[in-house]
Automatic annotation (TrEMBL):
InterPro entries (UniProt xref): ARHGAP20_PH (IPR047887), PH-like_dom_sf (IPR011993)
Name of the gene encoding the protein in the UniProt record: LOC107522970
Gene3D superfamilies to which the protein is assigned, alphabetical: Pleckstrin-homology domain (PH domain)/Phosphotyrosine-binding domain (PTB) (2.30.29.30)
Protein name (record): Rho GTPase-activating protein 20-like
Species name: Erinaceus europaeus
Classification of source organism: Eukaryota, Metazoa, Chordata, Craniata, Vertebrata
Every ARHGAP20 PH domain range: 2-76
Highest taxon above the source species: Eukaryota
Amino acid sequence: MRELFLCSNVLFISNTKYEDRFNIKYSVPLEILWVSDSLEKTGRANSRARRSLVLGWPNCSIVISFYSLGDKEEWLFCLRRFIKLAKNKAQHENTSLDTIIEDSEDCTFV
């Protein structure tokens, strides 16, 4: 059993709870995370597959199964929303423009 902790810019995935502590196994920035609910399309459309999501990031992917379809849908909605917000924020932070103004005698970078 794993526990998920969704923050505004990162998803923490822990191992099972041990002595009232969570051991964080993965800390995934949301701007590199992708989520899919396509297990049903693989031909394994059993009850567990309908309650599962695939989470992936570079070099790793995991399947998370939820207790109910409603829980899965709620997590899917929240993950997609927060991933979109994180990617938009990262894109705006990484966008810079170098402007060159040319004079007749020299070039100046602004």
